[in-house]
Request: fold
Amino acid sequence: MDDLQWQVTNLGGVLPRIVDEVLDGGGLEALVEAAREREDWFCAEGAVRGLCAAGEFERAWAVVEPFAGTGWRPAVRVAADVLLRWGRVGQALELSRPERAERSERDAVVAVRDYAEVLVRVGRAEEAVDVLVPHLRDRRALGALVELTEGQGCDERVLELLAPLAEEFRRSPGLGGNGLWEALSGQARVLERSGRADEAIRQFGADVAARRYGPQNNVESYAGLLARHGRIEELRSLADTESHAGVPGYVGALEDAGRAEEAEAYLRGLVAAGKPGWYESMLMELLFRQGRPADGIEAAAGTFDDLHDSNLLQPALLLLAEHGLHDRAIALTQERSPEFLAEHEAHWVRSNRWWLMGEAGRAPEALAEIEALRGGEVDLVDEVEDRELTVAWLLAQDGRVAEADALLRAIPGKRAGTQLAELLIRQGRFAEAIAAIPGVAAQREEDERQRAKWREAASSGAAGGWGSR
Reply:
């Protein structure tokens, strides 16, 4: 269980995106083998998905059963799903039934939630509610009550259960830490789906106006409720009083209603009022969505040389790349002030430019830049490993796959192994791709060595380099 939890917490083993690439490429059998041989959870999960999609439930069960046998809840959840799809309802219920002695209260609530979901899926929603009721003062169970009962014909009972919890929180909002604040948004959601949207808006609006938030602000949920029902004027009032969560809802509602010019004018007004960074980001994204990338860049350009957190250069580069405007993005990296480049060029501006060059078909130019930085008194490329991984990626982009392969095989560790796996997947070499990535035990050792280095650097007061940024 410790190994399995480490994999999920640290994205250890084979990364989920690599599993997806293998599965999409037709490498299902390689995932099945990796689940068995490497005890890799993400490979097992991907194998189960692929086998279930093919209707091979018996094989899917054979893959997941050893993982579920540990009692680890994510594996139990996946295994119960396999059994249900296989038609083995009784076995699924027995497997997912909460144990009498869970390791913690949190584990107990998670187990109860999982069991309730299985009950709902087999048509026993009222029993699921009964299972959740003793735990409703925990926000996870409270949220599950609202989520799992949708479309199950028991909304009135759910509202009856939510009402006293919501009223208790309204009387004493300081109790938010125990999860009762979730009852407010839960009430609104159940009222809305029951056809009582006006009542939901009136009640939830009163809660928001009275700032009954708990540890999590409910304004975003309320804004979504207003937007779904076309209450644009109420959204404007909310945005004026609760800008952080209200403005995105108002701008989005205007855009959805075909009133993008009003949204633009509103955001420009906020920027002109001296509210930088965040609103400029929203304005830039809005203009890109409207097919006006040049205007979007102009709207945010005043931040691009800022040395602080309000700098929007990185989001601008990504937006330009998404729209195929790589050369314009490359130019932005070269137009920066000397002060900004002195602070950031070696850290991330160069690496972004090389990535953009590779995407734009200019890999040889990027490789030449990197080569020019080698061998001086000061190596301006931050870390040797980062440099070599970048070179390997650019070589592959330039069609020099054999050179990229050889370079990656010479670099130890998960990052190089994962990059090599991507190369091999594109060649249909799925088993080799998975084998190129270090196993879970090796990754845990690597992770501990890295953490030890960081601790040593921190204790000596000399923390620096890639790992500390």
Remarks:
- Confidence is low (pLDDT under 50) at residues 462-469.
- Residues 264-350 form one domain.
- The longest helix spans residues 338-359.
- The radius of gyration is 27 Å.
